[in-house]
Amino acid sequence: MSTPTPAAEAGATAAPIRARHGERSRREHGERGYGPFLPLLLLAVTAVAWPAFQFYQLFNEKRALATVFGNQTRQFDDSGKLRNSLEGLARETALLAAKGNPSAKLIVDELARRGVTINPNAQPSTPAKAGN
Known about the structure:
This protein is an all-alpha fold and 132 residues long. The chain contains four helices and no strands. The protein is rod-shaped. The model has no long low-confidence stretch (mean pLDDT 81).
C-alpha cells in the first residue's frame, strides 16, 4: 500500500503548482505569441519599400530637372543671339566712330568711360551649346 503524503493526511487536496509571482503564462493574460515571423516580415517589407520609394522620388526629380534644363536651353540660345547682335551693333558703332561720326564717337567715349571696351576687329562669337 502507498504511504499517504502529509497533505493528504491532513485532508487537504493537492493544489496544482503555480508559476512564481510575475511568471504567469501568456494564456492567462490573453497574449498571443507570434514568434519572429511578423517582425521579420515587417523588416523585409520595409527593406524593399524604402528603396523603392527613394527610387520613385529620385526618378521624378530627375525628370523635373530635365524639363527645367530643356526650358533653359532655349533661353540660353536666345541670350547668345542677343549678345551677338549687341556685339555687332557695338562693333559697327565703333567703326562709325573711327570714321568720324560725332554721335558714334560720343557713344563709344561714354561706354569707355563706364568701363565697356569695344573691339572693332573681333569676329562674332558663336554661342556655346548648353550642357557642354
